[in-house]
Write a structure and sequence with these properties.
The chain is mainly beta and 509 residues long. 6% of the residues lie in helices and 42% in strands. A hairpin with a 2-residue loop joins β26 and β27. The structure holds CU-O-CU linkage and copper (II) ion (2 copies).
């Protein structure tokens, strides 16, 4: 059993150190399956650090879906959105008789929904009242200046306030979100509850208002029997934390009731640390209308969608058949290291009851939503190779999550780019797991994917800030940064980001 000793010692090192390496044992992870107590569920394989031997706690299901409460605008005039966001410890009641310590924005998890309009100025004062750790607010996907982006080089100390201010340009309407991004603490702060949706609305929106506009924010929860959230285990560090429950707006499998024939506009957010959501809507027809950075050119029908960590998608769902329509997960193999691969198929995330009474006639979705200009031909090209490495040292195996052979270093600039220049980025995944690639500061366009020598084009042109790069796959995208300053790019499995799979592009004026 000394192997287990390696693992535990390694885990302690990874948790305590700021170095971008997780330790793991040296010979074949797979034989851990045969070790007593090591073959269980992802949450329970490291008893010393987590909730040993407990099956997932049951959560109530079927409550009416809660819409995310909006963050009130204190400005009192149009054109300006002004508010305060306080990150602080709070408690939640996921199970009736137990309180769960969480982290919350303004007492809520997910945080309040921020809704502003294109052309608005946004002024949000962030108060870090988490306790004794730094935090930031990162405006994921939003076109904000580098010094307002809440990146790890710009921490907000424990107890401090920080004013973030930026303008929302015309054409920026889209489904963004906000979350902490402090060096070495992002994964924990997010899985403990800090994440919220930021919807930028268009002044003239082509999608009929009768469809409504509902954010469905998916988060991931693991609860120990006492109601607490266990710390990350070795399995979590390697694969990213995958908990026992997927929640929608903080609820497990909530219920939505609609009239037959209704159409609903839904914005789906994957705000989990590491869950890949391959989704289908049984008994209802899905049409994709938008991506991370706003509307597509035209609606595209879809039988299923894959939403990797941090991605968003905008759908119109048509509920034409009376009865039950469920949003469920399908199996998706994203690569898994060691034991405890989670059951990811067959989960019901949302249940829609479609009544027999017909809805009032709904206006049709227009055939064209908005133009998307393809970016100009790139003048520079870059290649980013993602690898997971293992190297032996005195205590066992060190595992690294690397980009171009390097782990993240806050003091190092990895790429120097020029504002306004179009670049081709080739993201090469030579690792054994999928890695969702995210770039700060701008939206990009995926040009093609290559896997096993086969090149495929994306089904539609879209603005994206996060794209899954499957194991063994290369994704080519074109991007242009408009503003100067340092920007992060990283894997959005937050444990991988934290363990080194991140770099800095310095954009020069
Ligand atoms: Cu959603 Cu660098 O983050
Ligand atoms: Cu981001
Ligand atoms: Cu990753």
């Amino acid at each position: 059993m000394h192997r287990r000793g390696f693992l535990v010692a390694g885990l302690a090192t990874a948790l305590a150190g700021s170095r971008a390496l997780a330790q793991m044992k040296m010979d074949g992870m797979s034989d851990m399956d045969s070790m007593p107590g090591m073959g269980g569920h992802a949450g329970h394989d490291m008893g010393a650090m987590g909730a040993m031997g407990q099956s997932p706690t049951a959560l109530p299901q079927g409550e009416a879906l809660r819409e995310l409460p909006p963050l009130a605008n204190e400005a009192g005039r149009s054109g300006l959105f002004r508010a305060r966001l306080t990150a602080e410890p709070a408690t939640a009641r996921f199970v009736a008789d137990r309180e769960t310590p969480i982290l919350a924005y303004n007492g809520m998890s997910p945080g309040p929904l921020i809704e502003a309009y294109e052309g608005d100025r946004v002024e949000i004062t962030f108060a870090n009242r988490i306790g004794d750790e730094p935090s930031t607010i990162h405006w994921h996907g939003m076109p904000v200046p580098a010094d307002q982006d809440g990146n790890p080089m710009d921490p907000v100390a424990a107890g401090a306030d920080r004013a973030y201010a930026f303008e929302l340009p015309e054409g920026s309407a889209g489904s963004y979100w906000y979350h902490p991004h402090p060096h070495g603490r992002t994964a924990e702060q997010v899985y403990r509850g800090l994440a919220g949706a930021f919807v930028v609305k268009a002044k003239a929106d082509p999608v009929p208002a009768a469809y409504g506009d509902t954010v469905l924010m998916f988060t991931d929860l693991r609860l120990a029997a006492d109601g607490s959230m266990p710390d990350n285990t070795m399995t979590d560090l390697m694969n990213g934390r995958v908990g026992d429950h997927v929640l929608v707006n903080g609820q497990k499998n909530p219920k939505l009731t609609v009239a037959m024939g209704a159409r609903r506009r839904l914005r789906l957010y994957n705000a989990t640390n590491a869950r890949f959501l391959r989704l289908a809507f049984g008994n209802a027809a899905m049409t994709v209308i938008g991506s991370d950075g706003g509307l597509l050119e035209k609606p595209v029908a879809a039988d299923e969608i894959l939403l990797s960590p941090a991605e968003r998608i905008e759908l119109v769902v048509a509920f034409d058949k009376p009865g039950t329509a469920s949003l469920t997960t399908l199996a998706y193999d994203r690569g898994w290291m060691g034991p405890g691969r989670p059951e990811d198929a067959g989960l019901t995330l949302l249940t829609v009851e479609v009544s027999d009474a017909p809805a009032e006639a709904m206006p049709p979705l227009p055939e064209r939503l908005r133009p998307i200009a393809p970016l100009a031909a790139p003048t520079v090209s870059r290649r980013l190779v993602f690898t997971e490495t293992m190297a032996m040292n005195a205590t066992g195996m060190e595992m690294g999550f690397l980009i171009n052979g390097k782990a993240f270093d806050m003091g190092r600039v990895d790429i120097v780019a020029k504002a306004g220049e179009t670049e081709l980025w080739e993201i090469v995944n030579q690792a054994d797991m999928d890695h969702p690639f995210h770039l700060h500061g701008t939206q990009f366009q995926v040009v093609e994917r290559e896997r096993g020598g086969k090149v495929s084009k994306p089904p539609y042109l879209a603005w994206k800030d996060t794209v899954n790069v499957a194991r063994g796959e290369t994704v080519r995208l074109i991007t242009r940064q408009e503003r100067p300053g340092p920007r992060m790019y990283h894997c959005h499995i937050l444990e991988h980001e934290q363990l080194g799979m991140m770099g800095i592009v310095d954009v020069q004026a």
